[in-house]
Amino acid sequence: MKSMRLVALLLVALSFGACSKSGGPIIPDITGIVVDKGDRKMYLVSKNTVKKTYDISLGFAPTGDKKIRGDGKTPEGTYIIDRKNPNSQFYLSLGINYPNINDVAEARALGQNAGGDIFIHGRSGTDWMTKRDWTAGCIAVKNDEIREIYQSVRVGTPIFIRP
């Protein structure tokens, strides 16, 4: 009888987990993320195989590499997913470790601040419905897609952002 109760409790707990906003299908063995800014595509990769492709929105001034806070550009280069935020104002988000040491040096050489808080995130509000690129420099996907990405990508996963 105790084992039946335990099984019932586990099933209830699992069903609540499936209903949470961070729940979604898991794409196994993701070893990297590739972002192609020009094509507005993001790829989840396992070794040398593309597992999933997403259409993306970028910063409001997407051409070129992010140099300073407020420029509206999405950074270019190699970074790491360094955190997960289940309480993002944009549904869910994965943090990108921008700025790195080189980004900070470039901004300082310009007498500016490099900025920060660059994420892959979902959508909130209506900007995404009226503008192709609307973020402050982040990479945005649909909310159902960020659930899948959030579940599949581990902290420490490299992300390659190409022009």
Report on the structure:
The radius of gyration is 18 Å and the shape is globular. It has 4 helices and 8 strands; from the N terminus they run αβββββαβαβαβ. The protein has a single domain, classed as L,D-transpeptidase catalytic domain-like (Beta Barrel), CATH 2.40.440.10. By secondary structure, the chain is an alpha+beta fold. 25% of the residues lie in helices and 26% in strands. The model is unreliable at 1-20 (pLDDT under 50). The protein has an 8-stranded mixed beta sheet with strand order 3-2-1-8-4-5-6-7.
List the helices and strands and how they pair.
Blueprint (H helix, E strand, L loop, with lengths): L1 H18 L12 E5 L4 E6 L2 E7 L21 E9 L7 E4 L4 H9 L8 E4 L5 H4 L8 E2 L2 H10 L5 E5 L1
Parallel strand pairs: 1-8, 6-7
Antiparallel strand pairs: 1-2, 2-3, 4-5, 4-8, 5-6
Strand content: 25-35%
User: CATH topology, anyone?
Assistant: L,D-transpeptidase catalytic domain-like
The profile of the biggest β sheet is: 8 strands, mixed
In the CATH hierarchy, what is the superfamily?
L,D-transpeptidase catalytic domain-like
The CATH class is identified as Mainly Beta
- What is the topology, as strand order, of the major beta sheet? 3-2-1-8-4-5-6-7
Oligomer state of the chains in this structure: single chain
Structural class: alpha+beta
Cα(first) to Cα(last) distance is 60 Å
The second-level CATH architecture is Beta Barrel
Topology order in helix (H) and strand (E) letters:
HEEEEEHEHEHE
Low-confidence stretches: 1-20
Give the overall form. Answer: globular
- pLDDT average, as an integer? 85
Helix content: 25-40%
> Helix count, per DSSP?
4
Please give the domain count. Answer: 1
- Strand element count: 8
